[in-house]
Design brief:
heterodimer, A: 636 residues, alpha+beta, B: 43 residues, 30% helix, rod-shaped
């Protein structure tokens, strides 16, 4: 939208209203992380700023376009809207974005089939003059998270929007993540030059290898290559699509003795948040015992000392294919990431190779489910698969069920299973948010459009027979057997029958080298349940119930005490302990003007009194002096 | 092996933003937008 009045500051104050479902709260925070990674837009809990966004569970999913200067600005994440891409969509509206097909040039790219639109809904397909909407010189974007789907507002199942390029018919309306153009426009509109959480991405396509340096304190160097006879045959970035180009870094362990090392260090990086996730692809064509050590070389703030800390030793690296690794770092001072290849025992014909490194100040996924030969699975007669068992950080055991039986829909479900910690855990399982991501393996993390969905275990959810859905699997689950013969119990699954379509999965880099990566995080989000904040005697509601805020102020807890956050507008505000007093810029002007007048009057009085006294004094003096004065040579 | 039942978080309804709002009978601008006065005038 054109008009600076609609722009938010780069850090947007927000409130998550109590009405929001737990899953929605977690999803909204994850959507914020995508903004932090791909743009300079950040979010902070509201602390009295004049304008802020209040996210609440209203009727449906909706937002205003741009900052409204109304103090509180509502954004609704209603039932069914708790999906990350939906939240991204609504916040892009709030940041000043219309729908993509509202652009002034949209008829060059899509045709609207008017007779298929529900009667009375035609206005939804209006488009706007370039005096109202600025496309910022960015091409029309079929993959925008802001585009309608092909059957939007249709009176049947036939498309209401037909793309002029047929290949994009199933691309419009995909809600995966920001497209490249969404990011470009957002960053142009808000003059972004950096982001909060992105640090580095390197696919080694350029000869400067992203400023990485070879160490002199080792026995060998990493080489920048496009293929190695023993593997890999190609890099991971292009995966053989551009033979002869496409580079990676290789440590040739076959040319050195056991124990020899090769060290590659990143350029110096400057952390902002104090936690990082390092992600890269690794290929082993050397000895089974070759290993890769990851260190961080951290520089103290005084620049006087540097410490080298071993973070991870990667051993038993499978050979013959690229493998995805995630390493959690916790650097708080400027640092380098250090990759140390170590030659192991046993014969080696090749070595270790690394490619597509991404470093961001985000949380790593907790688990990775690597599915090989994926296209064969799609064609197999029984297309349903369970992941290996995983444990959440709290100790809950779980599996993911991938359903390929209902193609073109690909389903994904979460099951609790019996595990070693069950006796020590809380049942029914409370407020664990499960986030499943099918990774878009595009080399640069900023350009990825990974498909992500979340669900949260509600301990109060029951099923038909009255059992709690997320109760202990040994109580409510069915007995099943692992391939190794071990018996266990698996609870009912809950998830997404249409996690993504087969067409979407075949797009971008979801399947690369016939590998698919499913990233899994199961995290405790009980702390987001503000109504259940643990307090010695009273909960938040009780404290706030006995502390009433006037004039629509909101009660919050600050250091265990109830406080009011008062409403404010562009030129007015409420203040006082309970928002009982009203202030406005007009009041300020009146006070300033009357103060100025009072000071002026006082100064005038002082001046007049001074002048009067001075004159009085000088009138008396000449008469006293003239008595004995003899005038001589007066005109000489 | 018995297969446990599976449940859909959306109760079998795979709905986009506009479907959700449409089902609720909301009459929002372009399906999910609330307009201010200036925007309404422009629209």
């Amino acid at each position: 939208i054109i008009g600076e009045r609609y722009r938010w500051p780069h850090t947007i104050p927000y409130v998550l209203d109590d009405s929001l479902e737990m899953n929605a709260r977690g999803v909204i925070l994850k959507a914020f992380e995508r903004y932090r990674l791909k743009s300079c837009i950040d979010f902070k809990p509201w602390s009295g700023e004049p304008n802020y966004i209040s996210v609440f569970k209203g009727n449906g999913c909706w937002s205003s376009v741009g900052k409204q200067l109304t103090g509180i600005q509502e954004l609704s994440i209603g039932e069914g809207c708790d999906k990350i891409a939906t939240v991204q969509h609504e916040f892009l509206h709030a940041l000043g974005f219309w729908h993509e097909q509202s652009r002034s040039d949209r008829n060059d790219y899509v045709s609207i089939i008017w007779n298929r639109i529900i009667s009375g809904k035609e206005r939804n397909f209006d488009f706007y003059d370039d005096q109202v909407i600025d496309s910022m010189n960015v091409p029309y974007d079929y993959s925008s998270v802001m585009h309608y789907g092909k059957t939007a507002f249709g009176n049947g199942s036939e498309p209401t929007i037909i793309t002029r390029v047929p290949d994009f018919m199933d691309v419009i309306g995909q809600r995966m993540d920001f497209s490249d153009s969404d990011v470009l426009k957002l960053n142009q509109l808000y003059n972004c030059s950096s982001s909060l959480s992105f640090m580095e991405s390197c696919d080694f396509e350029l000869g400067n290898v992203c400023g990485m340096i070879q160490s002199s304190a080792d026995s060998a160097d990493w080489q920048r290559l496009s293929e190695v006879s023993e593997g890999p045959e190609s890099d991971h970035s292009n995966m053989g699509r551009c033979r002869g180009s496409g580079f990676f870094m290789h440590f040739n362990s076959s040319s050195v003795n056991e124990g020899a090392t090769a060290i590659l260090e990143s350029r110096i990086l400057y952390p902002k948040r104090g936690f990082q996730c390092l992600q890269f692809f690794l290929y082993n064509s050397g000895s089974e015992d070759d290993q890769l050590n990851i260190y961080i070389r951290e520089y103290s703030t005084a620049h006087l000392s540097r410490t080298l800390t071993l973070v991870e030793q990667i051993k038993d690296i499978p050979s013959g294919s690229w493998q995805l690794y995630h390493i959690t770092l916790n650097a708080t001072n400027k640092f380098r990431v250090v990759f140390e290849g170590v030659r192991g025992a046993g014969a080696s014909l090749g070595g270790l190779s690394i490619d597509d490194i991404n470093l961001s100040e985000t949380r790593c996924p907790h688990h990775v489910w690597h599915i090989r030969n994926f296209t064969q699975l799609i064609g197999s007669p029984n297309g349903s698969f369970y992941s290996p068992p995983f444990y959440s950080s709290k100790g809950y055991a779980f599996q993911i069920y991938l359903n390929l039986d209902s193609l073109p829909k690909i389903g994904m479900y979460f099951h609790l299973i019996s595990g070693a910690n069950d006796d020590q855990l809380e049942w029914p399982c409370p407020w664990q948010q499960v986030t499943i991501t099918i990774l878009d393996q595009t080399p640069d993390i900023r350009q990825r459009m990974s498909k992500q969905q979340s669900l949260t275990t509600d301990p109060f959810l029951t099923i038909d027979n009255g059992n709690y859905f997320w109760d202990r699997p040994s109580k409510v689950g069915a007995q099943v057997i692992f391939p190794n013969g071990t018996q266990f119990q698996r609870g009912r699954g809950r998830g997404f029958p249409n996690f993504m379509s087969q067409e979407m999965l075949k797009s971008r880099d979801f399947i690369k080298g016939d590998d698919v990566y499913i990233l899994l995080t199961v995290e405790d989000i009980s702390h987001l349940n503000t109504q259940n904040d643990p307090l010695p005697t009273l909960n938040v509601n009780d404290l706030c119930a006995s502390f009433r805020c006037e004039n629509d102020g909101i009660c919050i807890l600050q250091n265990g005490k109830a406080e009011c956050r008062c409403r404010s507008g562009d030129d007015w505000w409420y203040m006082g302990e309970r928002c009982e007093k009203r202030g406005s810029t007009r009041d300020t002007i009146v006070i300033a003007t009357s103060s100025t007048a009072a000071v002026f009057a006082l100064m005038l009085i002082i001046t007049l009194v001074s002048v009067y006294c001075t004159r009085k004094k000088y009138r008396k003096e000449p008469s006293s002096r003239t008595v004995n004065t003899i005038m001589e040579n007066q005109y000489a | 092996m018995p297969t446990p039942e599976i449940f859909d978080v959306d109760n079998g309804l795979d709905r986009d933003i506009f479907d959700i709002n449409e089902d609720l009978g909301l009459d929002l601008f372009e399906g999910d937008i609330i307009l201010d006065e200036i925007q309404e005038r422009n629209a």
